[in-house]
């Protein structure tokens, strides 16, 4: 597949040279959707978005409530502690984290109309947080017309928090902070929707690009050329968790299938349910967790189903082998090989969704990991006493491995999510027309 960022840069250069009329935006142009490239860091597998005007990348966090970054100047603008934005920021404090700055709060601040708001930026990878001024960040992104034409960059600003450099631990080299993408009012998509009145909707094609606003999403296909992929995707309702602003799926069952044999996981009753009062349980999406993680009772049932699907076929001689950390399920033997798409032929994992128009199916690249000692399932068991990598005690987290090479379209006004599954099995990928 072509390199998406390179295509974006080339077309942007040409459009800015020849389409001078696009540089003088009319009031209506401020409501046009935005397109921004996404880059996957090879060392951490985290996705970053270069939407700040200084091009400093921010890590994409689907459950993040804030935009935060290191601030170069001590004279940065601040937000009043009496403002609505400050109230929203302080409703979103991390529930449990270790403060890298010792928990400083309100130090040297005097109450009154001139006080500066203090926010609590959170590193979703390390679980650490800090305090920092709520400020304004200069941003820039390209607008698009009808999802097929990339227009010149447009400047805007978003509210975000300053953070110390030590909060950047475990983030990609060069990243200066995090862009929260949750349903909270100070997340990046929510702020853009409020500013531009283009609907509380955004799309992620991982890795490739992010689209903000109500726009078709066109990607390249092998046989049909460039098509609007949003017209053919199934969708599922999203659940609202009172404790976690992330995106929860109404998963009601898990089935492992291989060569006509379907093995449902014998889950305990209600194992995947989310408690609407406490927020515990449920299945949540994460762009800051490397692999899917399951609570032990869920993992045991899933592992038994996966083993049964492997044993139940005569098409391949595959055996369980000692696990390779951090994985628990590893296999060796003659896995067949597909020609289209060219990849290993392994079981599919189906997540059955209540109220959805389709199932969420995990193919090879979205869960299988090749190691020197065999093929391992990139779905981990939560360690006893270790807790989940996501706040709210979910039953299952779908991580970066499961979301890679997927198109996800979030409509937060309707609380719906359109999903593609692994795009290579549709003989396409996250290649935009730009």
UniProtKB/TrEMBL annotation:
<dbReference type="GO" id="GO:0004190">
    <property type="term" value="F:aspartic-type endopeptidase activity"/>
</dbReference>
<keyword id="KW-0119">Carbohydrate metabolism</keyword>
<feature type="domain" description="Peptidase A1">
    <location>
        <begin position="43"/>
        <end position="420"/>
    </location>
</feature>
<keyword id="KW-0732">Signal</keyword>
<dbReference type="Pfam" id="PF14543">
    <property type="entry name" value="TAXi_N"/>
</dbReference>
<dbReference type="InterPro" id="IPR001461">
    <property type="entry name" value="Aspartic_peptidase_A1"/>
</dbReference>
<dbReference type="GO" id="GO:0006508">
    <property type="term" value="P:proteolysis"/>
</dbReference>
<feature type="signal peptide">
    <location>
        <begin position="1"/>
        <end position="21"/>
    </location>
</feature>
<keyword id="KW-0326">Glycosidase</keyword>
<dbReference type="InterPro" id="IPR033868">
    <property type="entry name" value="Xylanase_inhibitor_I-like"/>
</dbReference>
<dbReference type="InterPro" id="IPR032861">
    <property type="entry name" value="TAXi_N"/>
</dbReference>
<dbReference type="InterPro" id="IPR021109">
    <property type="entry name" value="Peptidase_aspartic_dom_sf"/>
</dbReference>
<dbReference type="Pfam" id="PF14541">
    <property type="entry name" value="TAXi_C"/>
</dbReference>
<keyword id="KW-0858">Xylan degradation</keyword>
<dbReference type="GO" id="GO:0045493">
    <property type="term" value="P:xylan catabolic process"/>
</dbReference>
<dbReference type="InterPro" id="IPR032799">
    <property type="entry name" value="TAXi_C"/>
</dbReference>
<comment type="similarity">
    <text>Belongs to the peptidase A1 family.</text>
</comment>
<keyword id="KW-0624">Polysaccharide degradation</keyword>
<keyword id="KW-0378">Hydrolase</keyword>
<dbReference type="InterPro" id="IPR033121">
    <property type="entry name" value="PEPTIDASE_A1"/>
</dbReference>
<protein>
    <submittedName>
        <fullName>Os01g0937800 protein</fullName>
    </submittedName>
</protein>
<dbReference type="GO" id="GO:0016798">
    <property type="term" value="F:hydrolase activity, acting on glycosyl bonds"/>
</dbReference>
């Amino acid at each position: 597949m072509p390199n998406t960022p390179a295509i974006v840069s080339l077309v942007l250069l040409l459009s800015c040279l020849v389409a001078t009329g696009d540089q003088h935006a009319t009031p209506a142009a401020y409501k046009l959707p935005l397109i921004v490239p996404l880059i996957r860091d090879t060392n951490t597998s985290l996705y970053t978005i270069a939407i700040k005007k200084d091009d400093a990348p921010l890590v994409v966090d689907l459950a993040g409530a804030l935009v935060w970054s290191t601030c170069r100047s001590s004279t940065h603008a601040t937000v009043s502690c009496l403002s609505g934005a400050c109230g929203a920021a302080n409703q979103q404090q991390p529930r449990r984290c270790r403060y890298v700055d010792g928990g400083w709060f309100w130090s040297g601040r005097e109450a009154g109309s001139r006080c500066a708001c203090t926010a609590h930026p959170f590193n979703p990878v390390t679980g650490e947080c800090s305090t920092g001024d709520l400020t304004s960040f200069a941003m820039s992104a390209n607008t698009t017309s009808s999802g097929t034409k990339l227009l010149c960059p447009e400047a805007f600003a978003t509210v975000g928090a300053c953070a110390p450099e030590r909060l950047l631990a475990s983030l990609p080299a060069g990243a200066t902070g995090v862009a929260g993408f949750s349903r909270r009012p100070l997340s990046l998509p929510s702020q853009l929707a409020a500013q531009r009145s283009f609907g509380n909707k955004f799309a992620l094609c991982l890795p490739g690009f992010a689209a903000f606003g109500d726009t078709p999403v066109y990607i390249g296909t092998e046989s049909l050329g460039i098509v609007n992929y949003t017209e053919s995707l199934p969708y599922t309702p999203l659940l609202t968790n009172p404790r976690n602003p992330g995106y929860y799926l109404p998963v009601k069952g898990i089935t492992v299938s291989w060569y006509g044999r379907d093995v449902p996981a014998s889950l305990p009753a209600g194992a995947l349910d989310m408690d609407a009062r406490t927020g515990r349980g449920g299945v949540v999406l994460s762009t800051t967790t490397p692999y899917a993680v399951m609570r032990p009772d869920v993992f045991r049932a899933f592992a038994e189903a996966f083993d049964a699907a492997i044993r139940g076929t005569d098409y391949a001689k595959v055996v369980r082998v000692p696990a390779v950390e951090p994985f628990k399920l590893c296999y060796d033997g003659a896995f067949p090989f597909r020609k289209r798409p060219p990849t290993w032929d392994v079981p599919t994992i189906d997540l059955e969704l209540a109220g959805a128009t389709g199932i969420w199916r995990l193919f090879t690249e979205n869960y299988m990991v090749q190691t020197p000692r065999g093929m391992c399932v990139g779905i981990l068991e939560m360690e006893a006493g270790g807790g989940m990598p996501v706040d709210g005690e979910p039953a299952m987290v779908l991580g970066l491995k499961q979301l890679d090479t997927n198109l996800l379209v979030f409509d937060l006004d309707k609380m719906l999510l359109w999903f593609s599954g692994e795009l290579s099995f549709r003989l396409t990928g996250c290649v935009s027309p730009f």
